[in-house]
Amino acid sequence: MSDFVLAPIVDGPDFTRTGLNLADGSLGAEVTSVTDEFFAPRARLLNPEPARFYPDRFDDHGKWMDGWETRRRRTVGHDFCVIRLAMPGLLSGVDFDTSFFTGNFPPAAALEACWSPQGEPGEAAEWVEILPAQVLGGNQHHFHAIAAAGPWTHLRLHIYPDGGMARLRVYGRPHCDWSQVDTSQPVDLLALAHGGDQVAWSDAHYGEPRKLLRPGRGVNMGDGWETRRRREPGNDWCILQLGRPGDISSVTVDTAHFKGNFPARCSIQAAHVERATRPSLIAQSQFWPVLLAEQPLTADAIHDFVVDVALGPITHVRFNIIPDGGVSRLRLWGTPRP
User: Which end of the chain is more exposed for a tag (fewer CB within 10 A), N or C?
Assistant: First the structure.
């Protein structure tokens, strides 16, 4: 019998489905400073997993809580923390998640943001209020759209006056300043940090295609795109958008941790598409020219393929896995075009 309770998954607004959580600690987001973290440390605030509650767990400071929690304030003022986003981003919405905080949640919270790409913001940093103080309740999600898109590199979360929050999730899309990218060598044009993103897919039962674009190698089998076992003819696929149009010279397909469930083969189709909707891309992608012909894949391995066809600059790819299975990472190495 489990000794903890897991917070339920909640169906949020559209921005939670279309945006990337830029406050995801597993992507590199970090709480760089706090006014206080007596009851629960800062790092838990950015854990991408749902919060957990252990009814009988206590530590030297009191009840163990899965989140960031400050002590009871006995002076004027309020608590706050500074968060460096996983990558600079244009923001669309936020989730203040107070799961399992019932008598110790803050009555209100607000967000400020700043642009400080060179490092941590100092005293002279220009902070902009992107979400005024919002009323919070206990043990629930609080979704709010953000109009002041940015781009931003850092956030300042204010809680009034003190208390605990299980998770902070800040949704948006990465912003890449291409003037700062070294393009003298091939660049991964699909990387999240370069603006790559998922568009559509046939199935994502065990993990969404966006995980293919994360930095580094997958940490486990859950850190990748994986489909259910296919019981009908055909194969699974996903459509991905490059961060910038470009000419592709090589491809890397990494099946890290996928040992009994990697695809037998893969192929890639590609095109330059200027105006399209998700449904039209799905329909058109069936007929896109081949960028990478079918290639065999093996378990838990990095596969590097040279692209020997000239399609010109492309904006989208259709990644086919045959017939189904899981892939950890996909890299499209090439030269960006204006």
Answer: N
User: Which amino acid, one-letter code, is at 111?
Assistant: L
pLDDT tens digits for range 196-254: 999 999 999 999 999 999 999 999 999 999 999 999 999 999 999 999 999 999 999 99
The answer to whether the CB of 108 falls within 8 A of the CB of 79 is no
Closest CA to 323 of 259, 242, 252, 261: 261
Residue 15 dihedral angles phi and psi, to the nearest 5°? -65, -20
Peptide bond into 186 cis (omega under 30): no
Q: Taking Cα atoms as reference points, which of 48, 337, 93, 84 lies closest to residue 214?
A: 48
Indicate the pTM of the whole model. 0.93
**Using CA atoms, how far apart are residues 47 and 51, in angstroms rounded to an integer?**
8
Nearest to 326 by CA among 220, 214, 251: 220
Burial of 205 (0-12, 13-18, 19+ CB in 10 A): exposed
Residues 6+ apart with CB under 8 A from 123: none
